[in-house]
Amino acid sequence: KGDIFVQLQKGSVIQTQDNMANKDTVEQFLDNNPQFAKEYYDKKVKAEVITAAFNNQVKVKEPTSYKDVSALQEAEFIFELVKEMQGTEPMEKALHKILQRIALLIQADRCSYFGCRARNGVPELSTILFDVTHNSPFNINLVNPNVEIVFPTDMGIVGWTAHSKKAQNIPDVKKDKHFSDFVDKQCKYTTKCMITAPIMNEKEPIGVIMALNKQGANEFSKSDQELFNKYVNFASVVVLLAHTASMWDIESRRSQVLLWSASKVFEELTDIERQFHKALYTVRTYIKCERYSVGLLDMTKEKEFFDEWAIKLGEQEPYKGPKTPDGREINFYKIIDYLLEDKEEIKVIPGPPADHWALVSGLPAYVAENGFICNMMNAAADEYFAFQKEAVDETGWTIKNVLSLPIVNKKEEIVGVATFFNRKDGKPFDENDEQITEALTQFLGWSTLNSDTYDKLNRTEWRKDIAQGMLMYQSTATPNDVQTILVSYKFGSGPEDCDQKEIANIPEAKTVELHEFHFSDFPLSEFELIKCGIRCFFELGVVEKFKVPAEILTRWMYTVRKGYRDITYHNWRHGFNVGQTMFTLLLTGKLKKYYSDLEAFAMVAAGFCHDIDHRGTNNLYQTKSLSPLAKLHSSSVMERHHLEYSKTLMEDENLNIFQNLQKRQFETVQHLFEVCIIATDLALYFKKRTMFQKIVESIEGIPEEKEKVNYVSNNATRKEIIMAMMMTACDLSAITKPWEVQSKVALMVAAEFWEQGDLERTVLDQQPIPMMDRNHADELPKMQCGFIDFVCSFVYKEFSRLHTEITPMFNGLNINRGEWRALADVHEAKMKAIEDEKKKLQGGDAQGELLLSCNTENDFNQQQSRAHTV
């Protein structure tokens, strides 16, 4: 078969026998036994053989030999790649090694990596690693952001690769319709053939790898493409890992921006400028730019009429500049400038001139006019906007790239423009920066609702104060009013100079029966009732004890009277009667022993004020009609309004009869006002009656008078429960008055109820309940009996048990119930007669029924007239 010669050393040849292994067998043996091969060559190969090998010209191996990479070599490469990925080195360094490997294996002249991004909503590609060869250094191939090549995805084969999301193998680029020589001209290079592949993140490209010009051939073969795709997979792992980390950082920054801006926005609600400033300054570390500014727009939509006179007369040119989408003239009334490089600095420029560096380019006005997001990569070279090319201030800072966004509120009005300058890593702002800053500006825009709402609340509060001042002026007693009661004997002195001794014409308590439970206000005028109210405080002894100025007391009493509206029942007369009954319960009913002078003072004053500014309708009507009072107060609507009105009087130093109290005493008075006035809500009456009954039973079981007093007076809760029930007894006291008084008051109450029923029928389009329906007027006696039995009887019965001195009220109640029962019986007899006659006339005509009804009605009227005259 022939001899085989294997050259082991220079000049020595060994002849083998036919039965020895051939060359392939030897190679396989050496491959399978690397340790033996190493030992053999270390022993047999001489130094001169190695020297001769390096001195001889090395011939380039066939391209096919580069593809025969052993599994061991590839494993070592992948292991090194994984170490790069796990380390702190940037993604570009690991990707650079892959591109070097690709260039070596497929014999490409050079390789490049392009990153995909978007600006202003337009996708584009930029060079990241450029012209990588199998031995080119990393720092030469890494592209500086200032000199990167940028082109859209609809340009060139690389752009088409990103657009189509498919790998390309172009044997002759000049025959391909997508080819563009834009990059070739930039680099003075000629591209002949090309192979490209996109790196995908799910369905979106994030980069493109490109290899150019096959060495030793005119095109890349199929096997080259398979090897290229294999290493593109490695590159995808590297790029996706970096992309995921980048997206995590971006989302983290976005969440921090929103979290901190939200925190600071809600710290400051009073002013939009301070609101923006706090939010923007707090999130500055997450935005990663060198500088940003915020221009605040004037929100005035219409000029004052006198500003238009000069324009209409032709003396001034009308405004011809840009306007916001809602038609406002673009006028930046303030710029807040944040410099984040070196020493941080914040500048506020009120009324900035048009040539200010932040405005001179026209970009903020353009954004305010169109509402667009503008992302500009090379501001100095832009042809549309004239950015300042030299340093903008003494710091030497210059504009490189710009991102400008509108700040839009919830009404879709542009309230300002935020402009960010120079990304810190030198790259232009991308879509991720746009998303972060857009989230921030949207949040800032929406947060203007807080300051707007706060401003509206302030304006409402100011209007309320103005209205309240006007109201107080109209309702407060004038000096002339006060003078009708106060008389000064000194020439030239006013009401404020009078003391208690100079109060004239105040009736004596006995004269008008102020101490009696059967007191009637009918013989007295409303003016005389004011004097009687003043007398109550003197009888209590609180005027001198708490140093209440005579003028203040008189003015307060006058003002309370003016606070009551001129309505059918809940007017000043009712308010006075409640205060007088509280006064009588304390003194005549002997309940004063449980309370201090200060508490008695507050209770009587609260009685006078308890229904002030009543509108003649109850709480249910206020709720049904959705009145402002019902919206303001969720429960006890009218009672809380009366309380607020009463506290308003206390806030005026010219009306505050408690002005000389200590702070703690004054707080006690305000609390007692709340207890007394809220207690007049009958909806709360049924909650407190059981507790009151238990207190009465406990007092009855105590033998000693002193212990009884201590049992109540030493426990604030028991005192308040009795106080609340006293207010109910005072509010319903008309039911205990002599029949001549009670019958008139009952008709006034019924008339006011019927007026509310008419409103429910006409305004609310609802059928009123029988008590409010004037069509059920003939049922009034029956309803009065039911009201006495269900509500009133318990109150006065328990008070008569508590103190026998209060028994006259319970007796008067029972007498009146008998009168109402008699009228109810007459009405029931009438109705029974009508029913009997109907039965007799069953089958008769309607005329007979009508005649019967009329006759029966006449009979009833005659009986009622004989029984009582109302």
TrEMBL record:
Domain annotation PDEase: ranges: 478-827
Active site positions: 570 (proton donor)
EC number(s) from the headed UniProt entry: 3.1.4.-
Official protein name in the record: Phosphodiesterase
Native source species: Dicentrarchus labrax (European seabass)
Uppermost EC category: hydrolase
PANTHER family in alphabetical order: CYCLIC NUCLEOTIDE PHOSPHODIESTERASE (PTHR11347)
Binding-site list for Zn(2+) 2: 611
